[in-house]
Every structure is written in structure tokens, then in C-alpha cells.
Amino acid sequence: MLASPTGADHPDTLLEALKRRIAREGPLTIAQYMDACLCDPEHGYYTTRDPFGSGGDFITAPEISQIFGELIGLWCAVTWQQMGAPAPFALVELGPGRGTLMADALRAGARVNGFIEAAQLHLVETSPVLRRLQGERLEDSGMTPQWHDLLDEVPGGAVVLIANEFLDALPVRQFERRDGAWFERCVGVSGEGGLEYCSAAKFLNTNEILPKSIRDTARNGDMVEIRPGVDAIVEAIAARAQTSPIAALFIDYGHETSAPGETLQAIKTHDYADPLSRPGEADLTAHVDFAQLGHVAGKNRLQVHGPLPQGEFLLALGLEERCDRLMGDADDDTAKTISSGAKRLVDPAQMGELFKVMALTSEHLTPPPFDGAQAPEQDT
Ligand code: SAH
After folding, report:
1. How confident is the model at residue 37, as a pLDDT?
2. Would you say the CB of residue 126 lies under 6 angstroms from ligand 1?
3. 44 C-alpha to ligand 1 centroid (Å)
4. Beta-sheet strands, E only, within 80-206
5. Ligand 1 centroid – CA 236 distance (Å)
6. What is the rounded distance in angstroms from the CA atom of residue 47 to the CA atom of residue 84?
7. How far does the chain reach from its first CA to its final CA, in angstroms?
8. What pLDDT does 205 receive?
9. Whose Cα sits closest to atom 6 in ligand 1?
10. What is the pLDDT of residue 7?
11. Whose CA is nearest to atom 22 of ligand 1?
12. 37, 46, 98, 167: which to mutate for ligand 1, most atoms within 8 A of CB?
């Protein structure tokens, strides 16, 4: 007899699977919960679907306007030139989504002599559904991407790396200060059989987990978030910087200075949802702490550039000029879409301020616009 896929050892929802895991192992940390919700091999949010676009749950900058990917492509090409145009080099994207950003970036990068010929494309992506979409989207580029689960798997040599809205999906742990002690926030099972927040009763050696700056300034009632995955990414970049040039561009929403506060959020069909109510069916993210990213990078002897607000970054790279050129060739309706998309990316009330851009590089590199240089020439 064939085993039923919905049999006792094979729960058909992530909620059921998590309840069994909690019964076996005890409450999950927020990071374990986020990891399961986003990347569970069977039920994870990214593992099982394409969440992007107006018909999906949320929309990202490259899906709003092609100008975003084009300007990032020029950034990659100019940065590569600054490295001395190494050939070959690895062009890496972390969490490429539908592949739209990379497709637009390659089209723009093709205007810089030798850039595409020298590039070997490496995509770090865990979702099989999104890997397939990325392959389809990049078919016309003429490049053959190689996929990896981890940045460490990308071969050595010079690297130009981009990551848009990748860090915000890396799991966070949450710690609460109460009565002068730290408690880790966890997820357990409620009396009604749903999920609920609880505190870990485990003894915590927070001196090893929480940065000193947080431990020194936190007050009773504060909640702080830390993102252990950032350290692993920065360490992988720093290890490469010892032997070859590397420049990594991180774009995400978050804050410039570290501060207490809970930022974990769930998004379903373009609206906020309860992070615990439908595990695996909503996107779960938390703000990126750019001060902490810069601090970890500095400790690993990387050069830190920025953060700059996304609006300032894109305008300095020539967003207005590119927008004018595209609108010049377009009918009225298309021109309106181009203009409103570009505005959404740079308007401080929309994505222009909340989203920030930080570059981490090896020595002797100062990519635009962190070098104060003018926008690169654009012919079409
Ligand atoms: N950069 C894209 C998508 C952002 S969404 C855009 O701007 O549209 C986050 C992306 O990161 C998705 O592709 C998701 O599958 C991927 N991802 C999430 N966690 C990951 C992990 N731990 N390792 C690799 N990829 C991950």
C-alpha cells in the first residue's frame, strides 16, 4: 500500500508541522519560526510560490520600474571597471526574486565594453519555484546562470554582488528586557491550538549574542532584534576580500542607527497580517539595521560606503535622465507609468527614504555615487 501524503508523519500544512515540532522540541525562536515560514522545503512561503507583483503579495523596486535594474547594472559595470576590469569575474545576486533586476542590469551593463563577456553569473537562491522563473527571465540575456544555496559556494576571484530586499528576509531573533534580565521571544502553541508568543525559559548567555552597545543602553520593556545571518554573509565577503577585489551592494528598508523596537512584519496581498496567523502563507520580514551591518563589516576590515537613502542613490546615478529618455519614446499612457514608477522609487514619502543603500568593498574601491562622481553616460 502507498503511504498517504497527508498521513500521520506528513502534515499537510506548515501550522500542523510546526505544532508537532514545538511538541517535540519546545518553543521555537523567532528566527527558527521565520526560517520555517519562508524556506521550509515543503511548505515555505518562497519555496512554494511567486509572491511578486500586483497579483501577488508585495512588489519590489525592480518590478516597479526597469530603471532600477538598469541603474544597478551600470553601477556594477562602473565598479567592475574600477577594479581594473578583471576577466573573468563573478556577477552575483543574492535572492534574485523573479530575475527582473538582473535581466535589466545585464541589458544596461552590455553598454560597457567587455563587461558582459567577462561576467559569470551566480545566483544565490533557495526557492526552486523562483530559480525556474529566474532561468526563464534570463534566457534572452545569453548568459548561463549557476545557482547556489549559499554565497560560500560561489567560486573564488573578483566579485560584484547585488542584493535587493534580501537581508530583510533573513531571520531575526528577538530579545526583551524585563526586570533587568533578557528573555528571548519565542513561538509556542496556545490553549486553542493556534500559535502564540511566549518567552524562552532557557538561560541565555546574552553577552555572546547581543552587541555591547545594545546591552549597555537597553531599558526595561525594550525589545531588540538581531540577525545572525548578516554576520555569515559579511564574513563570506570579507574572506574573499583578502585575495580578490569585491564590491557588494545592499539595498533594503531599514534604519541608519541601531535602536530598540520590534519590526517583524507579515505581508499578505499587499496588506499587513498577523505574523503568527498563517505560517508559510505570508511574507515575513524585519527592518535591516544598517548601523549593525556597517559595524560587522568594519570589524571584518571591509570598507563601508553609505548608507545613502535609495532616492539620493538613484538620482545620483542618473534616474532623471534615464526617465526622460524612456518617456521621450513612449505614448502618453506609457509615459505616465514610467514617470509614476520612477517617482515611487525616489519620493521620500514612498521608497526614497525608508530604503537605504550600502556598499561593502575590499580596499581601494569607492564605487559611485559614494565617490561623489557624476552619473555615467547613457546613450539610449
Ligand atoms: N531581489 C528580488 C526579490 C526579493 S524577495 C527583488 O528585488 O524583487 C527575497 C528573495 O530572497 C527571494 O528570491 C527569496 O526566495 C530569496 N531568499 C530568501 N531567503 C533566502 C536564503 N536564506 N537564501 C537564499 N535566498 C533566499
Report:
1. 97
2. yes
3. 12
4. 89-94, 119-124, 146-148, 159-164, 173-178, 181-189, 195-199
5. 18
6. 38
7. 64
8. 77
9. 97
10. 43
11. 170
12. 46
CA 103/CA 62 separation, integer angstroms:
10
C-alpha cell at 327: 518617456
Nearest ligand 1 atom to alpha carbon 164: 1
Most informative mutation of 124, 127, 162, 310 for ligand 1 (most atoms within 8 A of CB)? 127
Q: Whose CA is nearest to atom 16 of ligand 1?
A: 95
Q: Report whether 279 contacts 18 (CB < 8 A).
A: yes
For the chain, residues with pLDDT lower than 50 are 1-7, 378-380
Q: Look at residue 225 in the predicted model and tell me its pLDDT.
A: 94
Question: From ligand 1's centre to the CA of 41, what distance in Å?
Answer: 15
- Pocket perturbation via mutation, ligand 1, pick of 35, 125, 151, 230 by most ligand atoms within 8 A of CB: 125
Looking at residue 249, its amino acid is L
Which residues, in sequence order, are bridge partners of residue 212? none
Q: Is the CB of 125 under 6 A from ligand 1?
A: yes
Longest dimension (CA), the chain: 69
- Report H helices in 111-241: 115-118, 128-137, 206-209, 212-217, 228-241
CA distance linking residue 85 with residue 114, whole number of Å: 8
Determine if the peptide bond prior to 211 is cis (ω within 30°): no
Closest of 147, 142, 39, 158 to residue 89, by C-alpha: 158
The SS3 assignment for 196 reads strand
Is the peptide bond between 348 and the residue preceding it cis, with omega within 30 degrees of 0? no
Read off the pTM.
0.94
Contacts of 345 (CB under 8 A, 6+ apart): 61, 64, 65, 67, 68, 310, 311, 314, 319, 351, 352
